[in-house]
Amino acid sequence: MAEIFRSLVNIVSIVAIPLILFLFLGWGLVKKVKVYELFVEGAKDGFNVAIRIIPYLVAMLVAIGIFRASGAMEVLTSVLAPATNLIGMPAEAMPMALMRPLSGSGSLGVMTEIMKVHGPDSFLGVLVSTMYGSTETTFYVLAVYFGSVNVRNTRHALPAGLTADVFGMLGAVFICRILFGL
Amino acid sequence: MLNYVWIALVAVGILVAVGNDAGDEIKNTYRNDVPLEAVIVADGVPSAAMASWEGELVIPAESFNRFYGFNQETEEIRHEVKVTTGAGGESMIMIPVGETTPLLWREMARAGATKDRLTGTIRSIRFSQEGRQAVVQIVFEPVRFVKLKAVTQAAFDYASTAVTIALGLIGIMALWLGVMKVAEEAGAVKILTRLLAPITRRLFPEVPPDHPAVGAMIMNVSANMLGLSNAATPFGLKAMEELNKLNPKAGTATNAMCTFLTINTAGLILIPATAIAVRAAAGSANPGIIIGTSLFGASCATVAGLITVKLLQRLPVFRKDDPALVGRETRKGGDKDHG
């Protein structure tokens, strides 16, 4: 069942891009709009948007880089370690939960490391890879998306995004314990 | 909120770095200026007169652990080294750092001026009878401010990483913005928008259901779910641009923007391709086993995020900056002036 679902989604994601290109541009042709001219017109903005993001991305990534390099992550992990027992999360998975919203490459590193030490099919291996798939890099998404429209007052986006992360992590722990429980 | 979190990341980072370095200084974690006794087994028969010779450094596990105050087991150290003797008669030791080098030494080498090797002075050297073995006392180059140096390096590295990421976006941004422009003009996304209107109207009550922003948001979320992140980001940024056109107060996030970004940060994805790839590379017997569990986790994140974002937007702290209300207020003020 899971295999069928997986291959189905795989096929869809491979076909999706060519299909979208064909349908959208083809539909433009049917509707007799000036396809090429409009494409170039729209594509012009690509450069501006990318450049507009730079200051926001620099601010965010530098802050996260400093935080990670200082060893603050280890301090935070040891401070929060007693709490992991309460929610049934192995203490070794804590760095993953903390890293996931902060840094995509960082959490990828944590996941790879844990799998190397404990094995990908161990409970911890399954748990951290589930955690990795359960949420996105909140800080990066906020910096890029808000940066692209020069929004500086992000209001409740960050607390909501972080709440989503917390529940994603809790959900991952919950489902892994039920299905592959210790 | 982001203000405080941002400054907290920087300030806590630097303070922790200072604290760690101070702790290292007090505990002398790297044993600065303390001689380490070791045996070097030379490749040939060295003599004090030779300018340089190579050999193998041997330190029993027990004495290595005792010297650095380690609790955990370290295997016996056997490592290639090079000894050079200067004109003044003082000997230097050089340890090239590789995969097998103890972690602490690698860290020390990285903190020093020479990244790929660890250097030290030999305080005393005593050759054995047959002349191939030498008992030495090594004092490594002092290592200080490891974390502060790392912080500096990270700040510079990440600043250029940010630019690399942004510049890498130019091409795919241009491609998808071009496609979206054609689609918009021809009305290609309209059908999709109309189909999903019952959902989008509830999630984004402030956005007219046939607004181009809705189409871009749908495209973004669908691309994300399929794991097409190269297409998802341009669609998402297009959506933000369209949402910003409805924003009466530039620079402040609207409720719709916050809701949209919450969906994005929750990262609902049908196939977590990256995690599966890493599992497969690590030799998993069943890499795809996490598809179901990830879907569950991401659904929890999405539902919790949406509930939170809708609750928080009513909170006075966040409500007072709501661009929609600000717009109404200024309009009201304008009316008063007329009266």
In words, what does this structure look like?
Chain A is an all-alpha fold. Helix content of chain A is 80%, strand content 0%. Chain A folds into 2 domains: 43 residues, no CATH class; 135 residues, no CATH class. The two termini of chain A are 25 Å apart. Chain B folds into 2 domains: 113 residues, no CATH class; 161 residues, no CATH class. Helices cover 57% and strands 14% of the residues of chain B. Chain B contains 13 helices and 6 strands. Chain B has a 6-stranded antiparallel barrel with strand order 1-2-3-4-5-6. The longest helix of chain B is centred in the middle third of the chain and has 41 residues. The radius of gyration of chain B is 31 Å and the shape is elongated. In chain B, 38% of the residues are buried. The C terminus of chain B is likely disordered. At the A-B interface, helix 1, helix 2, helix 3, helix 6 and helix 7 of A face helix 1, helix 4, helix 8, helix 9 and helix 10 of B.
List the helices and strands and how they pair.
The complex is a heterodimer of chains A (182) and B (339).
Chain A: H1 2-30, H2 35-43, H3 45-69, H4 72-87, H5 94-99, H6 104-118, H7 123-133, H8 138-148, H9 157-180
Helix pairs in contact in A: 3-8, 6-7, 7-9
Chain B: H1 2-27, E1 36-42, E2 52-59, H2 61-68, E3 77-85, E4 91-96, H3 103-111, E5 117-127, E6 133-140, H4 146-186, H5 190-195, H6 197-203, H7 212-225, H8 229-245, H9 255-266, H10 273-281, H11 290-312, H12 316-319, H13 323-338
Antiparallel strand pairs in B: 1-2, 1-6, 2-3, 3-4, 4-5, 5-6
Largest interface: A-B, 107 and 112 residues
Strand adjacency order, main sheet of chain B: 1-2-3-4-5-6
Count up the domains of chain A. 2
| Main pleated-sheet profile of chain A | none
Estimate nothing, just give the exact number of structural domains of chain B. Answer: 2
Task: Compute the number of strand runs of chain A.
Answer: 0
Question: Structural class of the secondary structure composition of chain A?
Answer: mainly alpha
Q: Total helix count of chain B?
A: 13
Structural class of chain B: alpha+beta
Number of helices of chain A: 9
Low-pLDDT segments of chain A:
none
Rounded to the nearest angstrom, the radius of gyration of chain B is 31 Å
Which percent bin holds the helix content of chain B?
A: 55-70%
**How confident is the prediction overall: mean pLDDT of chain A?**
91
Largest sheet of chain B: 6 strands, antiparallel, barrel
What would you report as the Rg of chain A, rounded to the nearest angstrom?
A: 21 Å
N-to-C SSE string of chain A, H for helix and E for strand: HHHHHHHHH
Termini of chain B, distance in Å? 39 Å
Summed over residues and divided by their number, the pLDDT of chain B gives a mean of 88
* SSE series of chain B: HEEHEEHEEHHHHHHHHHH
